[in-house]
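dude i think i finally got it to work??
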Amino acid sequence: MGHPVVLSSSVHLGETLRQRAARYRGRDDRRSPARERSSPGEREAERLLAEAKRIFDQVLSAPHMDGDRDHPDRACALVRYSHLLHDQGNSEAALTEVKNAIRIYTEKYGSQHPYVAEARHRRALIRKGSGGRPLRWREDLTTARDIYLRVHPTDHPLIQQIEEELRDASDPTPGETANDRHP
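look at this
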């Protein structure tokens, strides 16, 4: 595993396994309630997540990915890997990895690129799913939506998904202000 095409395919395989695990748990990416942890579905979900982690670990340690730690291909893998880490209960590491991806994409393409929007959307889902401050994850969702609106029509599925997340957003935590935000 070292050719960029194989690495890219492996990233997408890892993401597919993560999504399948979420379905076994009876939830989608918006963190609807999970099934009972002792169910056969949970055991299958854990198996799929472990396999996805093994794939991501191989991808991220490949010379193409590990040699140039600021390569956009690495950022793509980190965005998806961060969601896997979150699904495995490691939200702190997930936020670190997605932050690295946002940095790489921003340095390479600028802050208004659709790749930055994707990474910020993922970070919002991770923050929301781990009980983060609503102002922080709403800011990521709003920024992602604004970037996507520059390149997609308003009825595009990505924009509709973000709009739904924003509609579902709760009010700010009592006492929280815009000064409490840290992108």
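Residues 29-36, 178-183 have pLDDT under 50 and may be disordered.
im so relieved honestly
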